[in-house]
Amino acid sequence: MTYKSSGQYYNSTAAPAAPKKPTVFLTPLVHQKLLGFARLCSVEISGMGFVKVLPENRGFLVTDLICPPQKGTGGGTELDPQKLAEIVGGWIAEGKEHLNEELRCWWH
């Protein structure tokens, strides 16, 4: 069955197009940091990453990582919310509010 909506024709029997998978890129420094954090810890570890959206919807670029204080086990992590708030508050005090907007990744 074909129908028209908003000036476009649709075929209701056709399979819907698969959504485009997001593409995430790491800078060489981010890749090295991520591997370094993993090598230094014998249990699960996590942190936050700074992300920029690439032009023309080409994906995301992770530009830096932080590894805030946390409790880690073999199956998970728990970031210390007080320490994370202190880190973010420090950026604000230093006039680096833009970092809050770029903190878009939670890695583990």
Short description:
Helices cover 29% and strands 33% of the residues.
Report what the structure shows:
The chain has helices spanning 28-40, 81-93, 98-102; strands at 2-5, 8-11, 24-26, 47-53, 60-66, 70-72, 77-79, 103-107. The protein has 108 residues and is α+β, with helices and mostly antiparallel strands. The protein has a single domain (20-107), classed as Cytidine Deaminase, domain 2 (3-Layer(aba) Sandwich), CATH 3.40.140.10.
In total, the number of strands is 8
Q: Which sheet architecture does the biggest sheet show?
A: 4 strands, mixed
Radius of gyration: 20 Å
Beta content: 25-35%
Span of the ends, CA to CA: 46 Å
Main sheet strand line-up? 3-5-4-8
List the helices and strands and how they pair.
Layout: E1 2-5, E2 8-11, E3 24-26, H1 28-40, E4 47-53, E5 60-66, E6 70-72, E7 77-79, H2 81-93, H3 98-102, E8 103-107
Parallel strand pairs: 3-5
Antiparallel strand pairs: 1-2, 4-5, 4-8, 6-7
Question: What tags apply to this protein structure?
Answer:
108 residues; alpha+beta; Cytidine Deaminase, domain 2; 4-stranded mixed beta sheet; two-stranded antiparallel ribbon; 3 helices; 8 strands
